[in-house]
Amino acid sequence: MPPENVKTPAGELPPLELLRSFEAAARRLSFTLAAGELHLTQSAVSRQIQQLEASLGVLLFERRHRALVLTEAGGVLQRAVTDSLERLRDATARVRAHAAPRQVAITTTPGFASLWLIPRLARFTGSHPQVDVRVSATLDVLDMERSRIDVAVRLMPIARGLGPALFEESVMPLCSPQLATVLRTPSDLAQLTLLTVDYPDHGEAPTADWEPWLKLMGLEDLRMKTTLRFTQYADAVAAAVAGQGVVIGRLPLLRELLREGRLVAPLGEGAASLRGYFVETSRRAASNRDAQDFAQWLREEAEAARRG
């Protein structure tokens, strides 16, 4: 017979903590293991089960020597409690996810971030005012899942890209309008300052960005008068705008500076670098509608830039 106690009135649920203890004990068929899972003592779990049995007026377990066995009533209650707790967990997770801040995390190169993405970013945040955008600008190729990244814009050889590129890259020497007065032919470069970027951890020579154009012009052995080296491409571009030398212009990143006349291309012809910018989304982005919108927005902006 169940312990004598006041029964729960018909239609009224027992306290949730008693049902949680019952579910753990029924699943493990052990008060001791259930106590460890719930961070309670074995005697506390035993008392809670006795209290639940008393409130229901039935035995839920057969206490055998070093063993617990569910009674028929216990089996019925276990199925109902397990299903109900799973439903509660699922509903709680959905409510928490709905209440969580909406966020899109993107990784890309510092040059793409500062020269192309950031000047346009207000158009996305303006149409998605409740979405926080986190930009990780780095030359390192981050593991998207481990770093909790939704969208990556990668600069890579076109032959290795997956799907169509946002745009392909071309390169040409650019300088300030003032410096262009002394840069009329490729041979004039030998008297000017080279503005370039060091990639110490990426195994590239300082003039790696120049090589496609130098090969096109037959100037592989060209040596410029002096060299200024930077760790970020945007800094080399800023030095070019200030008239401090000639930078290899990577289009379309610098197209706006050309349109504004802050940089000019006195030698005209550009060369394809055989690289392109590609959009990649992580597995976690599949359940993030804002991340999918961001990736689509990138493609639309790239298309608008091409048409422009």
Folded structure, characterized:
The protein is 40% helix and 21% strand. The chain has 308 residues and is α/β, with parallel strands linked by helices. It has three domains: 16-98, Arc Repressor Mutant, subunit A (Orthogonal Bundle), CATH 1.10.10.10; 102-164 and 276-307, D-Maltodextrin-Binding Protein, domain 2 (3-Layer(aba) Sandwich); 167-273, Periplasmic binding protein-like II (D-Maltodextrin-Binding Protein, domain 2, 3-Layer(aba) Sandwich), CATH 3.40.190.10. The strands form two sheets. An eight-stranded mixed sheet has the order 4-3-5-10-6-9-7-8, sandwiched between helices. Helix 6 links the parallel strand 7 and strand 8 (226-230). Helix 1 packs across helix 2 (31-38), helix 1 packs across helix 3 (42-56) and helix 2 packs across helix 3. 28% of the residues are buried. The mean pLDDT is 88.
Topology, pairings included?
Layout lengths: L15 H13 L2 H8 L3 H15 L4 E4 L2 E4 L1 H28 L2 E7 L1 H18 L3 E7 L13 E7 L9 E8 L18 E5 L13 H6 L9 E5 L2 H9 L4 E6 L3 H6 L10 E11 L7 H19 L1
Parallel strand pairs: 3-4, 3-5, 7-8, 7-9
Antiparallel strand pairs: 1-2, 5-10, 6-9, 6-10
Helix pairs in contact: 1-2, 1-3, 1-4, 2-3
